[in-house]
Each structure stands twice: as C-alpha cells, then as structure tokens.
Write a structure and sequence with these properties.
Low-confidence stretches of chain B: none
Low-confidence stretches of chain A: none
Helix content of chain B: 25-40%
Structural class of chain B: alpha/beta
Largest sheet of chain A: none
Number of helices of chain B: 9
Oligomer: heterodimer
Radius of gyration of chain A: 20 Å
Number of strands of chain A: 0
Shape of chain B: globular
Largest sheet of chain B: 6 strands, mixed
Structural class of chain A: mainly alpha
Helix content of chain A: over 70%
Strand order of the largest sheet of chain B: 6-7-8-3-9-10
Number of helices of chain A: 8
Distance between the termini of chain B: 32 Å
Radius of gyration of chain B: 18 Å
Mean pLDDT of chain B: 91
Mean pLDDT of chain A: 90
Number of strands of chain B: 10
Shape of chain A: flat
Strand content of chain B: 15-25%
Strand content of chain A: under 5%
Order of helices and strands of chain B: EEEHEEHEHHHEHEHEEHH
Chain lengths: 216, 249
C-alpha cells in the first residue's frame, strides 16, 4: 500500500521538476539576457517564490482558486505550487551556470552569423545545463522530500497513507513512518546516483575551469 | 570598388575615446596587417567592423553593403566575415568537426552530411583532419587556433578578420598558425590581421597600417614601412617590436 502510494510522489516529483526546469530556464535566461525590465521581473519572481513557505504556496494554489469557484485537483495544485517554487530555485542554479560561461562563446556564435537566440539555444544552454547538474542534484534531493507536503491538500501520497495506517492501527505507526523514511532514503540515493552518472556521461572531455578541479 | 571600406570610425569607452576617426579600404584578395602598441584600439576597430562592438560614429561597407545601416541584416553580413579571436573561443562542448560544421548547419542551413564533408575539407586545409573527434580542451593552443581558422573558412567568407591570432600561444606553437595564415594569404583570401608578428607582415602583407592612440599614423607597403617610414613613431615602434619578437616566420 505504501509503495503504491509512493508512485504518486514519484509522478508529482517528475511533474514538478519538469515544470521547474522549464520555467527556471526561462527565468534564468531572462535574468541574464532579458534587459533591464524583463531581468528585474525575473529576479523578482525568483525572490518572491523563494520567500514563501512551501506549505503556504500549496494552500494558496489549492484553496485560492476554489474561492472563485474553480476547483483544481490536488495533483495539479501540488504540481503548480511546488513546481513554481522549484523553478525559482532552479533559475538561480542556471543563472550561475550561464554566467560562468566565458563571454567569448557568445561572441564567437554571433561573429559567425548566429542570432542571439540561436547562440543561446545551440551554444549557451548545452553548456549551462552541464554546469548546472551538480547544483541541480541538490535541488532534486530537496524537492523529492517536499512531495510529502502535498498531503495537506489531500493528495493520496505516501505520507497520507502512513497517517491512515496510524489512525487504524496505532501500534504500527512507528513502523509505517520508518518505512516512509526508508522509501525516501532510497529515492534520494538512487536519484543522486543517476544524476552523478549523467554528469559523468555528459562531461566534456578534457574541459575544466581554469584552476578548477574535476571529481574522480 | 573595394571589398571592405571603413569610414571615420569613432568609439568611446566612458571618458576615453579609443578610436578617433579611423578609415581604411581593403581590396579583394589583399592582406592588410594592422600594427601598433597595445591599447591603441586595434582590436576595438576589428570589432567595429563586424559590429560585435558597434561604433559610436562612422560607417562600414562590405562589398558595397552597409554593415552599419540600422536596417541591415547583420547576421547575414557577419556570416560573410570570418573572425579569428586571440583566445580562439572554440565552442567547448563540441568536438572539432562540429565546431567547424555548426555554422554551416545552423546559419547557412546546409544538410548535416554535406556540412560534415565541407568541414572535413577545411580541417584538411589546416592539417587537422586527424583530430575531428577531439574536444577543444584536448587540443594544444596552436591546434585550437587552426580549428578556429577552419571554422571561419568553412563559412566561405568574403574576408577574415584576425585579432592577434598568435598572441595567446606559446612561442613554439606560433609557427604552425602563421604557416596556415601565410598559405591563406597566398591562396588569395582577403585578410585584415592585427598582429605583432613582423615576419608575417613582411612575408605576405600587401599593406601595413600603423595605429596609435586611436588613429592611423601611417600606412604603406611593407618595404616602405620597414625601410623608410615617414613618421618617426612608426620607425621607433618597428624597431622595438622587431627587437622584442624577432623575425619569426
């Protein structure tokens, strides 16, 4: 029963990471290349959504629309709330990565006749995503566990099931929560291992920042 | 009509006026070498030509088309002007072959297989067809600069701008890059080269331009510039630079 419910956490995890990746990339690009107005807007977005507690965002996205007669399913509300929150964090990971890329890369792209957008898509993003992976695995570890927060909006995820078990058989409470702990340990561990593998796969042969080190 | 014409180029950074009205003309097939002390705006001038650094004032024409016109298609014009950077600026996430072919596929819209063939041809020309799978970080500085020359050549540009192409190289790697450039000049490529390599200037330059403090002090053919410069500063500079760099060829 718990494992079945864990699937919902995993679905939520993928959905929110995907949304966060998409929005986060756009926010980061606007912040770096968007000019004054869009850049300030993007920076403001990142500030606002990093400043609001995840639980408050969940409540806002779930109960807010229903005040206006719009009922949002818990899964969608949780994806939006946690995804947007994650995009704010991810945007700062990408921004750091984009700004670490030497300006000469964009200059070379422009000098051969690429538009700015072409330069961003073919030259900057592929390099920035690689540089982001280490920081991104940190964000991953953090949001994996945030998926349990979705139980406050009634999503049938794993923590809610542990709670149901406790309500029915109080003697099993300890065991149920331990099981949840183990499940999240395994999820975090395997996720980070996969990301580490990906980082190795995508590493550019021979490349390192001037004076930097690579992990073994 | 000259292939490249720059007229009265001005550029200011804050309080300092880096370029104070530079004009020159370059004929098709000509190799022009720009020399002068560092900080005199030579590199800025090159960047003003392809608009990487738009000038504050002045106009530039490539083959009769005004590059500085606000309504020109600058991307299309840049594709006709190769640019070779001092620090190479190869795309670090792409291997040698993709570095050379990416402009063909993304800018010129050439099919991948055809772009590959064209890129191979240019890599052969710079003697690096055995390094197509290597990434920039796995190449020596001299090899990287040769790849970047191949990258410029692949676009079949009308001219190539070289911004101190050997200044970031270890002395023993300069020769291989100059060799490629000399071959290009002899093959009739139009080249505008900022460099301190007097050997190169002597060997292939049709014209030498001496720039200082944001203006062209003197220009002429190499023989005249080396043996009988009109302006005393030209002579002083040439003596000093020959002493420092020797006559590497």
């Amino acid at each position: 029963m718990l494992l079945r419910a864990t699937l919902i956490n995993i679905e939520l995890l993928f959905a929110l990471l995907f949304l966060g990746l998409l929005l986060g990339t756009v926010v980061a690009l606007l912040q770096v290349y968007g000019g004054r107005f869009a850049g300030t807007l993007a920076a403001g977005y990142a500030w606002v959504f990093r400043s609001i507690p995840a639980l408050v965002l969940l409540f806002l996205f779930y109960f807010g629309p229903s005040q206006f007669g719009v009922n949002i399913p818990p899964f969608i509300a949780a994806t939006l709330a946690l995804g947007i929150r994650s995009s704010a964090y991810q945007s700062q990971i990408f921004r750091g990565a984009i700004q670490a890329i030497p300006q000469g890369q964009m200059m070379a792209a422009r000098s051969m006749g690429m538009s700015r957008l072409q330069g961003i898509i073919t030259i900057i993003i592929p390099q920035a995503l690689r540089l982001s992976l280490a920081g991104w695995s940190n964000e991953f570890s953090s949001v994996v566990k945030d998926t349990t927060l979705a139980y406050v909006v009634g999503l049938n995820e794993v923590l809610r099931h542990a709670r149901i078990i406790m309500d029915r058989h109080y003697e099993l409470a300890m065991l149920a929560y331990l099981a949840v702990a183990v499940i999240f340990f395994v999820l975090t561990y395997s996720g980070n291992r996969s990301l580490g593998w990906l980082e190795g796969r995508l590493r550019i042969p021979g490349l390192q920042m001037k004076g930097g080190t690579q992990n073994k | 009509m000259s292939l490249l014409k720059a007229e009265n180029i001005h550029k200011r950074y804050g309080k300092e006026e880096v370029l104070k009205g530079v004009s020159l003309e370059l004929e098709r097939g000509e190799t022009m070498v720009v020399i002068g002390p560092s900080g005199t705006g030579k590199s800025t001038f090159l960047r003003c030509i392809n608009q990487l650094t738009p000038p504050d004032k002045g106009r530039v024409w490539l083959d009769g088309v005004e590059v500085t016109h606000p309504k020109c298609n600058i991307n299309r014009l840049r594709a006709q002007m190769g640019f070779v950077f001092q620090d190479f600026n190869l795309f670090s996430h792409l291997n040698t072959l993709r570095n050379v072919s990416i402009g063909l596929t993304k800018v010129k819209g050439i099919r991948k297989e055809d772009a590959r063939k064209l890129a191979m041809k240019e890599l052969e020309r710079v003697g690096l067809d055995d390094k197509i799978d290597a990434y920039p970080a796995q190449l020596s500085g001299g090899q990287q600069q040769r790849v970047s020359i191949a990258r410029a050549l692949a676009m079949e540009p009308k001219l190539i701008l070289f911004d101190e192409p050997t200044s970031a190289l270890d002395p023993e790697l300069i020769g291989e890059v100059l060799e490629v450039m000399i071959k290009l000049a002899k093959d009739g490529m139009t080249m505008l080269v900022v460099t301190h390599e007097m050997g190169f200037a002597r060997a292939v330059a049709d014209e030498i331009v001496f720039m200082e403090h944001g203006v062209i002090v003197e220009q002429g053919n190499p023989q005249q510039m080396f043996s009988a410069p009109k302006h005393p500063r030209t002579g002083e500079f040439l003596n000093k630079i020959t002493e420092l760099y020797g006559e590497t060829e």
